[in-house]
Amino acid sequence: MKTLSQRLASNKLRVVILIVSTFLLQSCDNPFSIALHDPIAPAPGDQVTYSLEMMDGEAPKNVRLYERVTTLKVKDLHFMGFHFQLLLPIPGQEVLLRTWTNPSLGTLSYTRPNKMPGSSMITYRFEITQHDNAIGRHEVTYAGRDYPLAEDAVPIYVTGDTANTYDIVFIPDTDITNLADFRTHCRKNIREAFFDEQTTRMFRHSFNFYMNRQTGHATDYDNTSTDGYHQVPSNDARIGFAEGRVLMHQNNLRNYAMGSLYSTEMQNRGTILHESGHSLFGLADEYDGAPHWQADVLPNNWDSKSDAEADLPPFSVPIIM
Length: 321
Ligand SMILES: [Zn+2]
Fold this sequence. Notes:
Elements: H1 4-9, H2 12-26, E1 33-38, E2 49-54, E3 62-79, E4 82-101, E5 106-111, E6 120-129, E7 135-143, E8 154-157, E9 166-172, H3 179-194, H4 198-202, E10 207-211, H5 224-227, E11 244-249, E12 257-258, E13 261-265, H6 269-279, H7 305-310, H8 312-315
Parallel strand pairs: 9-10, 9-11, 11-13
Antiparallel strand pairs: 1-2, 2-5, 3-4, 3-6, 6-7, 8-10, 12-13
């Protein structure tokens, strides 16, 4: 039997919820806002538009948008028959792109006049100053899809250190016929799934998203006896750091999760969230007719009434008014 602290320590999200809910009492996200860019994985030569959606709350005093372009060089190293690649980032100066004074709630957007440079990574930052001079920030880093480490997934929306965030890699399935569609759905799964569902969107600074260039293959859960289980991409060892490796396919399948590897129709926002519930957050199915297993760590289902009752004391949380 694990102690409560061991159980909490092994469940990243719920610890984060406890910490952040305390934090929210002290700082406010006003107005509530979401930063995003389009296209999500630009090619060299594309024009990129940044947007800040400001929803609930008060209109700010001003908003500033900054940007820094980092050139990526790769050094090839050969040692005892092995080949290593070292990424050498050369950061440029941060520049102020635009200031909005007394903007209304709604969406601010700015299209960068310069085209996406090759072999580079860009960090943009919206700084939102409220009327009491409190400042809220969004800082996002993305790379061009010619990211020079060919075996790595392309960072498309990175908000923080991989050790402190959920890392999610979108993998194109071999059944995808239009990669432009796939990239559009990568962006939509960020905005219309993770940043739309209320709980995950509150943690929008705790997710990093990547796009894989190597394909994988999802199978239908009902056909695994003939088709086998999900197949990982050839660079799977390079994306093992991710808590979520998502096989995004276009044909309808009965989807399932195997550890951190899970499948979804690329166009189905409900399914990606459902399977993320299993892989990222350790939740068991609750719907009728599903296998209602009892998870080892912080279960949401119990095998018996007595198991549920046994867990009751550590789960009761004092209410502080
Ligand atoms: Zn399920």
